[in-house]
Specification:
By secondary structure, this protein is α+β, with helices and mostly antiparallel strands. Among the domains are: 159 residues, FAD/NAD(P)-binding domain (3-Layer(bba) Sandwich), CATH 3.50.50; 96 residues, Polyamine Oxidase, Chain A, domain 2, CATH 3.90.660. It has 14 helices and eleven strands. The longest helix has 23 residues. It is globular, with a radius of gyration of 24 Å. Bound molecules: flavin-adenine dinucleotide (FAD).
């Protein structure tokens, strides 16, 4: 083909472009909860690369995003973490309203309390972190970043049935609907419980979510059922129960499932995503370099931020691998030998030293009194 141009008929090219736009729209709505026009294409590519490819984001085969379900629900992850940290160290219902920094401390404020901290890890999504009041103000690059990371809009619904009639008909229960249809949802999956209770789960997403969130719940339910009847047959109309949730109406989510980057953001402001601002370190799934936007990404980001804090506050000497992982913004999955971090954590748990409050929502190392902090520093310094 060297030196020659392949000329495709204009009609064929146009239909390919239309098909591609439709497919990208479906992908954008079902993965990000936004329309393609709301999101940077470079961010889309970065996000797919962080998962190992586009199909990995969409499929339920091994290694893909939909591979596993957690028996009993994902809330157990937070509960198990809280147990390990100690429930007494976890503050629920205490939103952080302000973080003030001076030469000595960061002051983390809620409506009832102020915590003196040597370091703070903010783990909520950028659009929520932007609601916290910072003093001194954050660098303008960071402000631009958070102002240009809108969160997706998804409404999730679950329907339970007497029988998994779709399976009896040879269907998987997975429906993918483009915007050119009159269907309110963009995607559904089989959600039959491990005990065998038949269910379907689906999402109303992007522009459709904006449209349908203003309608009455009964109207939405009727539209969802009517589309399911169209795709799966009349049995779909007879569900036992219909439950839905509009994540945009949750104060501490503001949307679902992830914050995306507007066009131009990745090019100009991306370094501010993970760069600490004084004593404030940034975690949360949006800052991950692997499985960004997913729970695995949140874990990776938390480990990276913990290493940053340990290196800075506790004077722990990181191994070359840990230092490299900090530079890369990644953490090691299987360290070949015990690292400074793992050795430290092992000793901390063995000697039952007071572990500073670590909430999945807000802050690491929340230390209320100086003497407690001194104890921790003394202990760490002993290694
Ligand atoms: C409907 C839905 C389905 C999903 N499905 C999947 C899936 O199948 N697989 C998957 O891997 N991921 C899924 N996700 C995404 C997954 O939930 C996130 O990637 C993950 O929870 C991100 O963790 P995080 O710790 O970064 O943030 P979050 O889990 O959002 O935690 C941030 C916490 O900060 C708290 N917070 C916010 N503001 C403040 C404040 N001012 N002060 C104190 N606390 C604050 C919030 O209440 C929240 O608890 C789904 C998300 C949704 C909404």
């Amino acid at each position: 083909m060297a030196g020659k141009r392949l000329r495709l008929p204009l009609v064929f090219t146009r239909s390919c472009v239309a098909e591609l736009k439709e497919q990208l729209g479906v992908c954008s709505r079902s993965v990000f909860g936004v329309e393609p026009s709301q999101m940077s294409f470079l961010f889309f590519l970065m996000y797919a690369a962080a998962a190992g490819g586009l199909l990995a984001l969409l499929e339920s085969s091994p290694g893909c995003a939909q591979e596993f379900k957690i028996k009993g629900g994902t809330q157990q992850l937070s509960e198990c973490l809280a147990q390990r940290v100690g429930w007494k160290n976890v503050r629920l219902g205490s939103a952080v309203t302000a973080i003030w920094q001076d030469a000595e401390w960061a002051r983390v404020m809620t409506t009832d309390d102020t915590f003196l901290c040597r370091a703070v890890i903010v783990t909520c999504a950028p659009h929520l972190a932007a609601k916290i009041q910072y003093q001194p103000a954050l660098p303008s690059m960071r402000e631009f970043l958070t102002q240009n990371m809108p969160v997706g809009h998804m409404m999730k619904f679950i329907l339970t049935y007497q029988t998994a009639f779709w399976k009896e008909k040879g269907f998987s229960g997975e429906i993918v609907a483009g915007s050119s249809t009159d269907c309110p949802f963009c995607v559904t999956f089989d959600a039959t419980s491990p005990r065998g209770n038949p269910a379907l789960v689906g999402f109303i997403s992007g522009q459709q979510a904006t449209l349908w969130s203003t309608r009455e719940a009964g109207e939405r339910r009727a539209a969802v059922l009517s589309s399911l009847v169209k795709y799966l047959g009349p049995e779909a109309a007879s569900c036992i129960h219909y439950e839905e949730k509009d994540w945009a109406k949750e104060e501490f989510s503001g949307g679902c499932p992830v914050s995306v980057m507007a066009p131009g953001l990745l090019t100009f402001y991306h370094p501010s995503l993970r760069k600490p601002c004084g004593r404030i370190h940034w975690a949360g799934t949006e800052t991950a370099t692997l499985w960004c936007g997913y729970m695995s990404g949140a874990v990776q980001a938390g480990q990276r931020a913990a290493l940053e804090v340990l290196a800075e506050v506790s004077h722990v000497v990181l191994t070359p691998e840990e230092q490299e992982s900090l530079i890369q913004g990644q953490t090691l999955h299987r360290p070949p030998k015990p690292t400074a971090l793992s050795a430290l954590l092992k000793r901390l748990s063995r000697k039952s030293v007071l572990i500073p409050a670590l909430t999945i929502g807000a802050a690491l190392l929340l230390v209320r009194k100086r003497d407690v902090l001194v104890k921790i520093q003394t202990y760490v310094g002993a290694f």
